[in-house]
């Protein structure tokens, strides 16, 4: 590979439609490193800031990207235009897990069974 083929220009689309980037990354960059950069560059005014790499799912070309894969391995020949910007969608899963925990604990409170012996 040479020059521009060694790098991929990526922008990260957040759920509210705003973007982080575009930023050039070497094709050898891991997905976990991309997620770390997203956390570091997360807009301060946004409430749902992810805290760890596990709080983020990156989606590109309809696929959820695995942390151990590299940008080059995740590239889709159908969607990536040479010299173009690749858009990856960012989903923060932290809030989903917190909501599920809250629902579970609330459900236990509502579904109490009381036995009365007469």
Describe the structure.
With 118 residues, this protein is of the alpha+beta class. It has one domain (3-95): Roll (Ubiquitin-like (UB roll)), CATH 3.10.20.90. 27% of the residues lie in helices and 25% in strands. The chain has three helices and five strands; from the N terminus they run E-E-H-E-E-H-E-H. The protein has helices at 31-41, 71-74, 94-110; strands at 7-13, 19-26, 56-60, 63-64, 85-92. Strands 2-1-5-3-4 form a five-stranded mixed beta sheet. A hairpin with a 2-residue loop joins strand 3 and strand 4 (63-64). The longest helix is centred in the last third of the chain and has 17 residues, at 94-110. The protein is elongated, with a radius of gyration of 20 Å.
What secondary-structure arrangement, pairings included, does this model have?
Elements: E1 7-13, E2 19-26, H1 31-41, E3 56-60, E4 63-64, H2 71-74, E5 85-92, H3 94-110
Parallel strand pairs: 1-5
Antiparallel strand pairs: 1-2, 3-4, 3-5
GO cellular component, one term: plasma membrane
Main location: membrane
Subcellular location: Cell membrane
Strand content: 25-35%
CATH class, named Alpha Beta
Compute the CA-based radius of gyration: 20 Å
What separation lies between the terminal Cα atoms? 82 Å
Low-confidence stretches at least 5 residues in length (pLDDT < 50)? none
Q: Describe the largest sheet.
A: 5 strands, mixed
CATH superfamily assignment? Phosphatidylinositol 3-kinase Catalytic Subunit, Chain A, domain 1
**Large-scale geometry:** elongated
Mean pLDDT: 79
- Tell me roughly what share of residues is in helical segments: 25-40%
Helical stretch count? 3
Instruction: Give the beta-strand count.
Output: 5
N to C succession of SSEs? EEHEEHEH
Q: CATH topology, which one?
A: Ubiquitin-like (UB roll)
- Judged by helices, strands and strand pairing, the structural class is alpha+beta
- CATH architecture descriptor name: Roll
